[in-house]
Amino acid sequence: MDKISYFQVLYYLRFGRILAGFSFCLALGFLCVSLFSSPKMEQLSQDQCHINREIDRSVAKIESFNLGPLAISRNETDIPIPDIINHLKLLALNDRPDADRDSMQYVIGIQNTDQSRTIKPHERVYLGFSELDRGKLYFEDIPSPIWIRLDQEDQGVILEVGLDVIDEMGDRLVESRRYYPMGVAISKESVCDLTTQLCAKYLMRSTLLNPDQLYEKYGDDAHRDKQGKYRLQIDPQNEQDVIFISFKEPLFFREGRLSFEKGSGPVVQLMQVEGREARFQVWSENGLEKTRVSLNLEQPSVIDFNFEDVIKRIRKRTGTSISCLLGNKNTLLKKGDWVLHTKLGWKIIKTPNDFNDYLTGKLIGELFVFDALEKREGQSVVIGNLFDKTRSISQQVALNFSEKKKRGILGDTKKEFPDEMINDMSFDDSDMEFDYFDFDF
Questions:
Q1: pTM to 2 decimals?
Q2: How many angstroms separate the CA atoms of 141 and 401, rounded?
Q3: How many CB atoms lie within 10 A of CB 131?
Q4: How far is the C-alpha of 337 from the C-alpha of 434, rounded, in Å?
Q5: C-alpha angle with apex 369: 368 to 375, nearest 5 degrees?
Q6: Whose CA, among 38, 230, 251, 378, lies 20 to 30 Å from 135?
Q7: pLDDT averaged over consecutive 10-residue blocks of the chain (441 residues)?
């Protein structure tokens, strides 16, 4: 019994040595395999690296994207995609009215940081992250697995987020895309561009007037470009310097002046008129900076007189002319005459220079335009339009003919000249401009 036990012990000891030797060899084999097949020991050739850069393939482990803002959103899709939309902000975009795809630019930033990049549509921006336990984003200067790009669609700016992960052999493991609408963050009202600041100050010195009612009433096809448009009087001291503008019609700031001539430099648009306030938008040359300028809409001047007290003793001379007392002067008016109220009184605009001076603002005052002689309810009336000093408002005027007084009443000192005498009266052209000049308005 003791002898058998001794041999059994020797047998088990010998088997144990064999098993231990086998385990040691197996462990040594695994160690060699792991050392010689490690990715750290494998190096790609320069040509292989160059090819990978050309196709934007970057080596990364998918586990790297399970931290912080780059955590994979499993709720939205089964395809791994970085959830970073809430960590990016669109700071600015070139939305100038004359912007095209070649000049379009965006400024994209990372929330709670000062980092930003200016990019063009469809241009890739690569992202990286530091401090893995916090997952902070930053803009990467070299290709990385995660990237973004922006583009303009009908519904606005669209953010595309891409994730491309490949293995060491260049095989693509993950290729995911996700699209998000991007709203522009509230931009500062102040601008840094000096030329844009100069343009805004230039605009703030201007005056905005309502559409010119003279062109509305009497303008023809040659003046259609002035009808229905606001008047921007650039220099209040020079009333000739007026630009007729409509909503969202671009004005370009060049060489210290605004004009419709397209070119480089800031651009201005009239965006809104509400009540007495007009709002303009001013863009910088690259369109990434903009500011608003508000102007008071100039109110029409008040016509503080009764025009029936201006023209009195109206008598019909022909089918197109009348005699009257205009102010304190006997006057003949013809259909189409323009009668201007000046500091020296009422005068008929007669010469081409006077017409030009009035239209360009050198001559200012209320204006009456004699349109026609009509019969209303059996009575002859003078029809015309009366304009305020700024020509922002007009009102139609209907003046009744004066009733003829009976003559021959004893003691009546307010005798009136008979029509025959008025017809034979001679008027001094130096004082009273009767000749109607057919001005090509």
A1: 0.66
A2: 87
A3: 9
A4: 9
A5: 110
A6: 38
A7: 43 53 57 45 40 39 45 45 79 88 88 90 88 72 91 86 84 85 69 90 92 92 89 71 91 91 92 94 92 92 86 91 90 94 91 90 92 88 94 92 59 46 42 40 50
